[in-house]
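Apologies for my clumsy wording, but could you write out the amino acids of a protein and the tokens describing how it folds?
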Amino acid sequence: MNRTTMRENAFKLLYEIEVQDDVSEEHINLFFKNNELNEDSVKEYILDIVNGTQIHKNDITKDISKHLTEAWTYDRISKINKALLKLAVYEIVYKKIDFKIIINEVVELSKKYGEETSPGFVNGILASIIRKD
């Protein structure tokens, strides 16, 4: 499985966690089983994303929030966009992965799973976060 597909699966699990507010080991293992994700390297990558976004949850949320316009609050962001932004911020800020790759892939995921306005919204927030560094 390539990195793009692993990233998409990590997003799907982050979205499930966002919706169900359940980060339990049981939930994660059920996700792996239901999606037939059996390779150790795939599980390791996804677990790193999930655990990393949980460990840095407050900082990631603050980082996203401070780049919203005055008309928006973090709570107004759709759960899909939150999951995408958390994934991207974690990989860019904490994993130091090339932001061009991450933004491109996350925007593509937003086109596939998000609302019509998701790609522009996600791209705008991430571009703003990148500019601050």
Observations:
- The CA atoms of residues 60 and 86 lie 7 Å apart.
